[in-house]
Amino acid sequence: xxxxxxxxxxxxxxxxxxxxxxxxxxxxxxxxxxxxxxxxxxxxxxxxxxxxxxxxxxxxxxxxxxxxxxxxxxxxxxxxxxxxxxxxxxxxxxxxxxxxxxxxxxxxxxxxxxxxxxxxxxxxxxxxxxx
Length: 131
Known about the structure:
Elements (H helix, E strand, L loop, with lengths): L10 E3 L21 E6 L2 E8 L4 E8 L2 E8 L5 E5 L4 H12 L22 H9 L2
Antiparallel strand pairs: 1-4, 2-3, 3-6, 4-5
């Protein structure tokens, strides 16, 4: 990842729960979508790395721009190059490959309070007091 942002480890693309996770960390938390998009005045393009195994993406900044290195632990991957040329076109091309997300039923659109990641009873009481 970009050391200008304070990251020095590759981003980990792997679904997992991390107890007491750190905010603003490149470590995996829940899901990942291995889609990289580049946008400039010349146009927009994307790449979709389709591999279900654990993957790391290392992003480097050089004098000529940014570069990425993709590393998967195992499995066969499919690489899709989405030429754009606009952001809308590139995302439409991605949606054509993966499908779109359906609108959830109305009963599923509500507040959800997770019971995960509390340190102790005092922490639970503090969160509860804010309702």
